[in-house]
């Protein structure tokens, strides 16, 4: 459930910095949260991991601040080092807590947006998923925050994800690839996650998924004040293959908030 062994954390963190496919996913999430966050907004990131996803948001939006929650000490330590190295540490607070039972100081705070990126597949079963979504729905209700949930989606054919990675990412380290394959296999299907969101009171969210292979899914809603005014064009964040993969992922995604 909690991803904390040193080797997995190291593979995941290194992959998030170098792997074009992972960087493309972070770019998609950052673009989505960019259009949801008002100027000077406060973001609650649930399952911050080693910090790569949140770092992409913070670098895209220099005006926002964030609190990142995770249970895994090694992940939090890695995130702390990343934010310090990137000069983002003054804008992020890290909290060790369970996303299914947040402390009142977080659950009752005035958030502008909540994100949960690449985390739900780590929850061990449908009951824990339901608890996490109930918690997210309660924070959203209490704060009027926007919401962005993205994750793997389990595919019908278990051989599809390994075959895709062999095709698009043949040179990635075996540890990283094994982690991705296990994560996709552990993920909730789009039907399972949609149904669980509805039960948690989050049935009205917009959603989209990757194509041609629907291995990623995303759900979102703008905050109570609607879509914030656009802050205009951003400088390009990605280059080379990561930029091309990000463009392909965006193009193939069936719907997105930007
Ligand atoms: C695969 S990582 C994703 C990290 C990050 N959002 C990203 O996209 O790079 C998922 C994270 O969720 C954390 N996690 C899993 N279950 C959790 C729970 N119940 N409470 C808090 N964190 C949890 C894990 O420890 C792990 O760091």
Instruction: Give the tally of β-strands.
Output: 7
Give the integer mean of the pLDDT values.
95
Instruction: Estimate the strand proportion.
Output: 5-15%
The small-molecule ligands in this entry are: S-adenosylmethionine
Which strands sit side by side, in order, in the main sheet?
3-2-1-4-5-7-6
Q: How many individual helices?
A: 10
Measured distance between first and last alpha carbons: 32 Å
- Provide the structure class: alpha/beta
Looking at the structure, the CATH topology is: Rossmann fold
Order of helices and strands: HHEHEHEHEHEHHHEEH
Q: Provide the CATH superfamily.
A: Vaccinia Virus protein VP39
Give the overall shape, derived from the CA principal axes.
Answer: globular
Q: What is the gyration radius calculated from CA atoms?
A: 17 Å
Uncertain stretches: none
Q: What is the CATH-assigned architecture?
A: 3-Layer(aba) Sandwich
Indicate the CATH class.
Alpha Beta
Biggest sheet features: 7 strands, mixed
Structure, described:
The chain is an alpha/beta fold and 258 residues long. The protein has a single domain (6-252), classed as Rossmann fold (3-Layer(aba) Sandwich). The chain is built from ten helices and seven strands. A seven-stranded mixed sheet has the order 3-2-1-4-5-7-6, with helices on both faces. Strand 6 and strand 7 (216-221) form a beta hairpin. Helix 1 (6-18) crosses helix 2 (20-36). The longest helix is centred in the middle third of the chain and has 18 residues, at 126-143. It is globular, with a radius of gyration of 17 Å. The protein binds S-adenosylmethionine. Residues 1-3, 16, 47-49, 52-53, 69-72, 75, 98-100, 117-119, 122-123 line the site of S-adenosylmethionine. Residues 1-3, 16, 47-49, 52-53, 69-72, 75, 98-100, 117-119, 122-123 line the site of S-adenosylmethionine (SAM). Keywords: Methyltransferase, Transferase. This is Methyltransferase. Pfam families: Methyltransf_25.
